[in-house]
Amino acid sequence: MNETNNTGVLKQIPVFYTPKMVANFSSFSPSAGKPARVVGAWQRLGLPIEIIDFEPVSADQFKMVHNPGYVDRVLSCEVNNGFKNKLPEVAASLHYTSGSMLAAAREAIRNGRVASAPCSGFHHARFFSGFGFCTFNGLMVTAMVLKAEGLVDQVGILDFDMHDGDGTEELILQHHAESWVEHYTAGREYEAAFQADDFLSRIRERVEEMRDCDVILYQAGADPHINDPFGGFLTTEQLRERDRLVFEAAHSLGIPIAWNLAGGYQEDKGGGIQAVLDIHNNTMIECVAVYQEQG
Ligand SMILES: [Zn+2]
To answer: What own/partner pairs with CB < 8 Å and gap ≥ 24 does 128-134 have?
Structure first.
């Protein structure tokens, strides 16, 4: 496990990745295949990351958040998952995408700083159903499991994906978690380029509103990009500034933060996703800059 050195600096950013998170199939969303491509890009850049294996989330843990019948029928491929198919490889990967988020949150709490979960597909998932490439809500699964284990009193969910975290919001109400889950979803307020400066200028206060949380779960979505087919209002450089501001605020306030990839749908003519990789690369570069250089 990643250790800090005697000056308290994280030597490497912990990344909770396994190939079992990846389901390769044809979908408009590259999300299911994205973890491998993103982790590969980070490794090619020589970024100081440590790949760590982790336990999958169990069906019973999904049932702490979702309707038990929905969980069983998705996992047995009887009803559509969030990608609108019933593929067993997607069902199998779901234990690991949520597992990555849960493991990263545990590690961020343990090291007191940061960990990365290179996964997607959470915030539109509701109690009875999935939607928009989201099947189970790994954000709320993480919050509920950590709460049940007594590892947290309060959890922050900072959702800077392009889209409204409507599934998260429904689940907070379903489970009467309004008092202990602090949820902010930018997708409810921001959609156009003229709002970019306002968005960036308010990031510090968004994080400060989570100062009483034991961990922040941060959705560092790539789909707010202005060229995203489902976006967007920020340039690549503004997205990088977003991530720097989030990490600097969480670091200076001493709030552990576990972050994931969330959405991002730009494709090259050849089917590559370099524009999306550039955004996720920048997130890790800013994470390293804050946590490795500032301790
Ligand atoms: Zn999105």
So the answer is: 128/66, 128/67, 128/70, 129/70, 130/74, 130/80, 130/81, 130/82, 131/82, 131/167, 132/82, 132/163, 133/27, 133/29, 133/31, 133/32, 133/82, 133/83, 133/263, 134/82, 134/167
